[in-house]
Specification:
The chain has about 450 residues and is mainly β. The chain folds into two domains: about 25-375, Methylamine Dehydrogenase, Chain H (7 Propeller), CATH 2.130.10.10; about 390-460, Immunoglobulin-like, CATH 2.60.40. It is built from three helices and 36 strands. The strands form nine sheets. Strands 14, 15, 16, 17 and 18 form a five-stranded antiparallel β-sheet that branches. Strands 1-29-28-27 form a four-stranded antiparallel β-sheet, with no helix packed on it.
Length: about 450
Amino acid sequence: MRKILLYFILIFLSTDLHSQIKWELIKQGLYKWETTRNVICIDSNNCYIIQDYDAEPGVLHSEDGGNSWIRKTWVDMINVSSVNYCFRIAYPHKGYLFAALEDNWIIKTRDDLKTIEYIKIEDEKRDERDKFFRFLTMKDTLFGIAGSEGALYFTHDGWQSYYRDTNLKKIEYGNYTLSYGASYGNPIYILDSLRYIIKVTLTDLTIPIEELDNNNLDYKLGIAHTYDGGKNWEFIEMSSGRAEFRNIYRFFFQTDKIGWAVGVSGDGKDGKVGTIYKTTDGGKTWQINYETPKGLKLRNSLREIEFINDKCGIVVGTDGLILVTYDGGETWNDESMFEYGDLVKSQIFGVQFISTIGKRIILGTLKDGIYKGTFPAAVSVNDYKSPGFSIFPNPASDFINITIDNETDLLTREVQILDLLGLVVSKSELTDGNNRIDISNLPRGTYFIKVGDKVEKFVKM
């Protein structure tokens, strides 16, 4: 009898483990042309979505985990005559939103759009490729990177000041050099204060310019990786060829070592395939982890990837394609909301964007509204990303910034710095957002920062 009972329990658990994400429509598209460009959630309640409404860019804000949304347009918020483009937003801490608009404007709010600062990125070297930022990422409320088609800009104080990168274009790789407008404005990922990566494209200089076109363009797709805060860049090749069928759209790192990239690849003969890349050494080397089947005319590009723990991740692509893994990327299951070939729906699920909050997923579509998904009950959330707060920079010489994660419930705001013997050498108090702590008087060495029961290590240089 016990064996029979155990048998049915195992069957039940197996079925539950392989059940699919459950989706529900939470906001129907109301406009003729609604284009989602970015979805981001900072905690279980606060989410933002960048959308165009009949060519009028705006933002949707939810304070209840996506159940209801408030729409605002950039024109109304910043009192300008028109805004044509807004590609990316960053939401590094509750209340702090950064948006990259056309004409190189950075929008900043500290109180969820109640009051707004707008900062013009002035640059006398700016040209036609710098009309708007295509990408923006913030590690915390102070350190961030913005990219246009022709330039990269860095800030260490929340865009009160900034500087333009002058080193990335120095990359040398045989006969190849950084190609015109093809590297900047593409995905950027900040690993820590000194290490960040950006997708780049290099072009073969041996081909005469008059012979270059989309059919014989010989280039190498890869990643530029810096280990010293952008002073020096190293190129890591991921694919090459004479076809315009290669791109990377998004990066995601589970840990300092394990990371992912999604995009599209192909040789121009058999068409394009959606591609997942994986690194296990912090981005030094990359391998193809998964490719979509060949011959799919629409489901051939992967756009976003996120993991909620070390095993469970989700990838979304074009034409409604949704891939899910429950074993850390060993296998990817097609959990699309509809079958491939449904021509009616394929026209409205053209591109998808996602953001995860624990086991919940917010998904924005091209013009078919917003969906909320829930991972199967058997999936547990394992918070591997952070000990409850982050430190920047690390190593440091004069000061460190401490940012408390929004999902972390700390019983105390007291910060203690301890030496290797466990002796407290400094105390201070935290507030919301970033907290700058002076460490200039500490001797060089390794220390521990303790906030409540959370501990992190840093190095004083």
